[in-house]
Amino acid sequence: MADSRRRILEAARVVVAEQGYAAAQVAVVASVADVATGSVYRHFPSKASLFAEMLRAVCDRELAVVRAIADERDRPALERIGDAVATFADRALRGEGLAYAVIVEPMDPGVDQVRLAARARLAEVFGGLIEEGMAAGQLAAQDAGLRGAAVVGAMLEALVAPLSRRAAATATGGGAGYPGGRRPGTTTATPMDSDAGTPGGRRTGAAAPDREAITEEIAAFCRAAVGGFPAQKEDRK
Amino acid sequence: MADSRRRILEAARVVVAEQGYAAAQVAVVASVADVATGSVYRHFPSKASLFAEMLRAVCDRELAVVRAIADERDRPALERIGDAVATFADRALRGEGLAYAVIVEPMDPGVDQVRLAARARLAEVFGGLIEEGMAAGQLAAQDAGLRGAAVVGAMLEALVAPLSRRAAATATGGGAGYPGGRRPGTTTATPMDSDAGTPGGRRTGAAAPDREAITEEIAAFCRAAVGGFPAQKEDRK
DNA sequence: CTCCGGAATGAATCTCAGTTCATTAATGAA
DNA sequence: TTCATTAATGAACTGAGATTCATTCCGGAG
């Protein structure tokens, strides 16, 4: 049944989101998915491909959301950039799809390429937006590719601190070389609603007290970075 | 001899910088350092602690450079921010100390904490600079902590693309994650000239027609992000 | 010259997690 | 009901690589 496949993918996502990749052995994922260890290999050729596919799906969803905003051609580029950033951040902060681990925790090299690729695609989107803005005379001349990447980096790094509050340390007796062998009662926090709605998820109104503030601050940073300084001031926020 | 210790640390740095963490087995590092595998454990309690120490040293050096600029109290904060960013980026691009692998390649969890901590300290420096700027009335009100992190993220992410051009792929199975394990017998396949010389890192004199440009663009991005938009325009460029 | 103590050695050991596969259970057609 | 086909199972296997440790080596003291 192809339903097992879905369950395994979902289990992989949940385990990584809640426990970190280090804890995501095939056996653990299998047990969360309620299948036997060996069954995983009936659906995926290897552990790496399982996690790569999972990560790709998660990233694709977020990318789709951002792209949707980027494609609203009738709005000024700067505004779309701010909105896209804010939406991405907001979704990350409320755990819809992305999670601390998925953004910054390293998995193995094979899987990591997927994350890198996702970042690159995201950067492309922002780069494209910047180019549009320049073409429309709304933004000053700048290196769109580089700044697109910078926007992505700023956005993600700014999210790390807020997100890690929710994501306790992963640890794994591994690095014995260090005092304090972490393991503060395994996370298990996030309820992780079975699955976020469809990619359509836009920012919804009310939210946590500071979530809104964080989101807006990040967006403001990115808007200023790209259009704040030599551009014409016609676009006020 | 405490000299072995130094050599081992240096070897660890060289191997990671040139081959990536994936290739950095204890045996490889030992051979580069010209000591026996077991000798590594005479100086370090574990592989993780060796790499953690190495990474900490590298990061400390960069951090010191940035701090030195940040401490030039008589210059306007915004200027110092731009300078610090430019300097960090330039050093990274010419391989002085940092390298692609050190910035983005995942090591194991224990070691990664060191990288995370380094990023956090860097963010603090920028955050502090922003605060100074606000206190001096040079920068508009903003969340210094968050923006400090964003500056770091922007800077690092913008460096990834330029740096990865020089950073050979880490190999180790393709993204597809299919079987067919690489690694034919000897891991020591690579020649690995024992030189290592000074931390200078031999970089082909391909010059940097754009190194300067990249550096300046990143700095401009960060300056604009932090002070471009509502602040007084007294600081032009 | 011979004898210690500690450092270096590197092959052997141990661990651990991904992968395999012989076996069992389930489904459904004859 | 029975057989065939496919999915599921999970214990055993395997390989990679970190760690260990019995042994060798070396410099200096007696």
Structural class of chain A: mainly alpha
Shape of chain A: elongated
User: Average pLDDT across residues of chain A?
Assistant: 80
Largest interface: A-B, 59 and 61 residues
- The low-confidence runs of chain A, each spanning 5 or more residues with pLDDT under 50, are 168-202, 229-237
Spatial separation of the terminal alpha carbons of chain A: 51 Å
Number of E-type strands of chain A: 0
Assembly type of the chains comes to homodimer
User: Which range does the strand content of chain A fall in?
Assistant: under 5%
Helix content of chain A: 55-70%
Instruction: Give the helix tally of chain A.
Output: 9
Biggest β-sheet description of chain A? none
**From the alpha-carbon coordinates, what is the Rg of chain A to the nearest angstrom?**
19 Å
Helix and strand run of chain A: HHHHHHHHH
Characterization of this structure:
The structure is a homodimer of 237-residue chains. Chain A is an all-alpha fold. Helices cover 62% and strands 0% of the residues of chain A. In chain A, helix 1 crosses helix 4 and helix 4 packs parallel to helix 7. Chain A is elongated and about 60 Å long. The termini of chain A are far apart. In chain A, 48% of the residues are buried. Residues 168-202 and 229-237 of chain A have low confidence and may be disordered. At the A-B interface, helix 4, helix 7, helix 8 and helix 9 of A face helix 4, helix 7, helix 8 and helix 9 of B. Chain B binds a DNA duplex (30 and 30 nucleotides) through helix 2.
